[in-house]
Structure formats: C-alpha cells, structure tokens
Q: What sequence folds into this?
C-alpha cells in the first residue's frame, strides 16, 4: 500500500506536540507501507532535517512556508470564508508538490490536522480516499481563545473558529475516517459533522526513554516544558508566574521555576525578571531538565486534546499539577500522578504540597503509572488497518 502523508510541519525532531505524533505515525506506518511524506517547513533549520527521515519514508518532500507572504495574504483574506489556518500554512510550491506525488498513485491520503486536509480537495487527489488525523478539533480551540482574548484578537479568533468549523465539517465528511485523540474531541467533532466516521486514536509516550536512571533531584525545581511562542503556553506561564508563583515563593523561597521550550515570546523572556524564575529556551533534550526537577506544572487555561508535556513529565518521574481543562484530556492512569487545581490559590497549594514530599515519594507517585499500554506502537497500531480499509474498493 502506498500512503501519501501530508503534514504541516516536518515531523523531525519529535520535540514538540505538533511533530511528535506525526513522527510516530510515520515510523509505525513505514513498517507496513510505502509512505511518501510531504511536509511544510517553516525555516532553514526545520528543512535541514529532511534527511533524518529518509529511512522511514519512500520519499521525503519539503516545501518552504513564506511567512511574510502568508501573513499579508491572511490579512487580505479576513473578509472571506477562508480559514487563516490555511493561508498561514501554505506555500506557492504546495500545489505542484501534491500533483507530483499524486502521479505516484497513492492508495490513500493521510492528512495531518485540518491545515493539510484542504490538499485532499485538489483535483489531482479528488479520487483518492482520505483519512484525516484531526488530532484536536482546532475550531473549538479558537472559540475558547476568543472567549478570553481582547479585541481585535477576540474577533480574529472568533472568525477563525467559525470558518474553520465549517471546513472541519466538510473535510471530516469527505474523509473515509477521521481520527482524534480523546473521547471529548470525538464528541465535539460529531456535533459539527454528525455523519462523519470519527475514531479515537490516543497519543502515546516514550516512557522507556524518559524513565529516570539516577536518584531523584533534591532541588525544589518546578518545571514547565512547551513551545514558548504558542499563545496558550505563553498565557499559561504568565498566569503561573504572576498569580501562582508568588504564593509558592513566599513559603518556599528556595524554589525555582524553570520554563523550558523553543522560541520564547517576549512576554516569556520578561518573566525572567521575577525572583526564582529561569527561562531556558530550546534545549537539545528535555529529559535531563525533567530529571533535574521536583514537580511539573501544566497551568494551561486553554487546551484541547492530550497534553504530551504531562505524559512526558509523569514518565520522567515528576508528579504534575494541572488545570481542569488539561485533566479532561488525560488518560485515567496518568491522572493518578496529577493534582488538579483551578484557582491560583489551589494551584499554588498543590505545588507546595508536592514540594513538601520527599524526593523518593514524588518519584514513586509518578512512576507508579504503568505506561505499557501507552507506547506509541500500541496506541497507533489501529491506524494501518484504518488506512487499509479506506483504500479498499469495498
């Protein structure tokens, strides 16, 4: 079976949420199928990793995203019904690249997220069966962001929620099957497209790689890991730093809060001026930073799907404090290692409570979670059969 796999980022390195699932999908599918990968690349560094995927794909094809052009085009298209998701995730070379790969005769198209699903409507793929890995229902995320943003962003986000929802309805009904990561996402998408065939395929975690080998750290370090130019992550660390951290540092002046992740926004860099807060930016591997910490936090106020950062933190031996919207997307077995808190006061108390435990107690709380059922090989096992059924003439 030949699969045309369309992704809005090159799925390497698998060090951020929108790459890690795509990377493991490619890895698992490559065992059974010939996969032609077509990815958007957003900078030279990302494009340079195409060769790292050569052993997993029959062909690796990259088209560059012209950011300034797309930004201008997005502004021009605001009065229309075209989603900004599509105008920002675009390339002048995308159509020709799709047409060239269509001539290779894919048996099925796997589009990753709503940003790439539009390619399945190009004439060269019109007769090809589509499987859409929606992951999360993005329109619902934009609606949630619109509810808390100020004008004019509130208007932009609300518009995106409306026009993207319409596209998600059409795309999921065009697809032979649409995948999402949680039951909550399935219900949300089914309310948008009741006649779509929607299947839950959970995320996994590389628990064996993340499992700590050394003794637990004695340092009272609280850590947050994520892409730090992503608006919900920026909002989360700002809320934690300004509303929660003063409560923590008042009782534990020896504590430190480490913000780890690529491309910190100016608002994130500004948090380094607060006592006890350190902004690390990108690191080669987040695992050592997790092993060096005592507690992980996921204080997101806007979240959809599964937060990989929580799965990875718990697998690395860290109990984690999460907000209710994060908890909604977590598997039940992972919640056993988490504390759920909604208000700044409750969140701070939960962090302090975990910091008061002995290092061995904290680690035992996290490592009691049995991740064997959540390996990527196990969670993504159904995808090949879903693709094969979609490709079947029957």
A:
């Amino acid at each position: 079976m030949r699969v045309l796999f369309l992704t809005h980022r090159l799925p390497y390195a698998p060090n951020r949420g929108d790459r890690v699932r795509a990377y493991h999908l490619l890895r698992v599918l490559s065992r059974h199928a010939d996969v032609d990968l077509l990815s958007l690349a957003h900078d030279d560094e990302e494009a340079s990793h195409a060769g790292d995927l050569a052993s997993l794909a029959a062909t690796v094809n990259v088209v560059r995203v012209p950011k300034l052009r797309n930004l201008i085009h997005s502004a021009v298209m605001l009065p229309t019904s075209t989603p900004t998701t599509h105008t920002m995730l675009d390339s002048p070379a995308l159509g020709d690249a799709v047409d060239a790969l269509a001539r290779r005769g894919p048996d099925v198209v796997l589009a990753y997220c709503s940003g790439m699903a539009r390619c399945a409507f190009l004439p060269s793929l019109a007769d090809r069966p589509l499987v859409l890995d929606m992951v999360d229902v993005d329109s619902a995320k934009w609606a949630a962001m619109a509810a808390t943003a100020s004008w004019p962003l509130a208007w932009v986000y609300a518009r995106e929620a409306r026009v993207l929802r319409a596209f998600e309805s059409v795309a999921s009904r065009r697809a032979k099957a649409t995948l999402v990561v949680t039951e909550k996402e399935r219900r949300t998408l089914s309310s948008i497209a009741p006649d779509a065939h929607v299947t839950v395929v959970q995320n996994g975690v590389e628990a064996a790689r993340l499992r700590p080998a050394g003794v637990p750290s004695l340092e009272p370090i609280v850590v947050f890991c994520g892409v730090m130019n992503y608006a919900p992550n920026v909002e989360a660390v700002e809320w934690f730093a300004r509303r929660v951290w003063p409560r923590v540092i008042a009782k534990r002046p020896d504590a430190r809060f480490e913000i780890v992740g690529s491309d910190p926004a100016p608002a994130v860099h500004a948090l380094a001026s607060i006592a006890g807060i350190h902004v690390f930016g990108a690191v080669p591997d987040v695992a050592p930073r997790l092993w060096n910490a005592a507690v992980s936090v996921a204080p997101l106020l806007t979240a959809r799907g599964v937060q990989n950062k929580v799965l990875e933190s718990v697998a690395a031996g860290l109990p984690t404090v999460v907000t209710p919207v994060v908890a909604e997307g977590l598997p039940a077995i992972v919640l056993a290692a988490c504390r759920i808190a909604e208000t700044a006061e409750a969140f701070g108390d939960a962090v302090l409570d975990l910091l008061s435990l002995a290092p061995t107690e904290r680690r035992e709380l996290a490592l009691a979670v049995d991740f064997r059922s959540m390996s990527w090989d196990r969670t993504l096992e159904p995808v090949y059969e879903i693709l094969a059924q979609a490709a079947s003439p029957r």
Remarks:
- The chain has two domains: 2-204+375-391, 207-372.
- The longest strand covers residues 34-41.
- The longest helix spans residues 153-174.
